[in-house]
Amino acid sequence: MKNTAKVVIIGGGIQGISLAYHLARRGLTDVCLVEMKELGSGSSGRSAAIIGHAFPSENCLPLVELSFAALMRFQDELDADPGYEPIGCLLLAGAQGAPDPSTGSGYDLRRRHALLQSKGVVSHLVDRETISRLTPGLNLEKIEVGLYGPRDGSVDPHSIMMAYAHHARRLGVEFAEGVKATGLQIEGDRVVGVHTTAGFMATHCVVNAAGFRAREVGTWAGMDLPITNMKRHIFVTGPIAAYSQPIPFTYEVEVAWYMRREGPGLLIGMGAVESDEEDPQVDWSFLDVVADHSVYRAPALAEAEIKSGWAGLRPITPDDDPILGEASHLRGFFNDCGWGGHGIMNAPAAGIVLAELIVDGTTDRVNLTDADISCFRAERFEGWLSKGDC
Ligand SMILES: Cc1cc2nc3c(=O)[nH]c(=O)nc-3n(C[C@H](O)[C@H](O)[C@H](O)COP(=O)(O)OP(=O)(O)OC[C@H]3O[C@@H](n4cnc5c(N)ncnc54)[C@H](O)[C@@H]3O)c2cc1C
How many CB atoms lie within 10 A of CB 382? Predict the structure, then answer.
């Protein structure tokens, strides 16, 4: 591993890898990404791989749009297939809705629809009859309304990461796998290096893309990043006759239960339990909880045979928005973390805007609230600066 770099990225998930590629694409190739395990071994390799407009906050919507645009030109730009399949997303809610972390009030699909309409995003509020047509065989007890996004769909995060990594490498970026960052070297108010298990690397720019370990990396910079890791399970079934035809990604917001087709079977996701496991394992006793709700909501799942399962962590902030941008107290220290359940869909965009911020010191790519990405800075949270020394 080299011992000096213009930019050091900590974390080889989809966020860090996207940033590495976009920095190199803008001509900044003296970049080293350190990943303590293998690229994509964190949350990025364990997601449901959905890109959709109904999930992100109003602040994040421009990023999702930018990601969509990047995915549409992915094949031409990177000569690789990002696996985008516009299967559509169908959100289901009852009369009350579920807690919406970005507003603190109910997850009101009607309000969500109005927001999407005002931003020019195609979405449809649908009644129970249309819900049954889109995703047949559901028991719609306690479901009042649906929100359907026909452009939303699934991607292949592995292909996206490998294509970004391949082209970043080709342009000169070093990927140091099996290397763990262990601390920062700080002089005055600026970063001057990173300590790693493979030695010290001098640098004036460090990016915290450490996903479920971002809170720990933040402490090295004297920050108390309010990120909580929530564990979610996914189970994959064998073929189910009732779901042999395409269905949209179907998500019940009140209980955060979802299903979509995966190969000949279904992928079913559920669960939000706080956890800091480094390699989250399946808790097979949780399968009973998932099975109970699945059979209640989609009775044909009673015949499902579970073929495989995995678990992963979603690093969530109090308002469900990411932490993105340079720390105001420490020059050269950037955060790109706290992506919760939206880190795949936002990765192309985050790489573009953060690369622009690092290379040019400004970004005009997306018209976010302040015409920049300052709405995502850690400083929006009270107590973001820890009391101790960096
Ligand atoms: C079950 C599940 C379903 C999901 N579904 C979706 C979805 O449908 N759509 C969507 O957009 N998002 C989804 N997500 C969220 C998404 O997976 C994450 O937001 C995203 O992967 C975060 O990417 P990342 O690069 O920030 O983190 P990660 O992929 O976790 O990468 C961080 C990397 O940093 C490395 N690291 C940590 N500390 C250090 C250190 N000190 N030194 C070196 N390396 C270090 C880790 O090994 C890891 O590889 C889901 C998540 C889960 C768990």
Answer: 9
Q: Which pLDDT belongs to residue 246?
A: 94
Give the mean model confidence (pLDDT) for residues 46-62.
Answer: 92
Q: Is the CB of 43 under 6 A from ligand 1?
A: yes
Backbone angles phi, psi at 120, to 5 degrees: 80, 20
Q: How far is C-alpha 144 from the chain's CA centre?
A: 28
3-state secondary structure of 214: helix
Helix (H) or strand (E) holding 272: strand 265-274
What is the pLDDT of the chain when averaged over all its residues? 93
Scored b (16 or more CB within 10 A) or e, 153-163 reads bbbbbebbbbb
**pLDDT for residue 97:** 55
d(CA 88, CA 46): 20
Ligand 1 atom closest to the CA of 271, numbered from 1: 1
The residue to mutate among 21, 47, 64, 182, having the most atoms of ligand 1 within 8 angstroms of its beta carbon, is 47
Going by alpha carbons, the residue nearest to atom 25 of ligand 1 is 13
Ligand 1 nearest atom to the CA of residue 280, by list position: 53
Q: For the chain, which domains are there? A: 7-49+157-226+319-380 (3.50.50.60), 89-150+228-316 (3.30.9.10)
- H-helix segments, the chain: 14-25, 61-72, 74-78, 109-118, 128-134, 157-171, 214-220, 286-297, 347-360
How many A from CA of 46 to the centre of ligand 1? Answer: 8
Q: What is the pLDDT of residues 221-272, one digit of tens each?
A: 999 999 999 999 999 999 999 999 999 999 999 899 999 999 999 999 999 9
Asked if residue 215 has its Cβ within 6 Å of ligand 1, the reply is no
Q: What is d(CA 216, CA 218) in angstroms, rounded to the nearest whole number?
A: 5
Q: How many angstroms does the Cα of residue 315 sit away from the middle of ligand 1?
A: 8
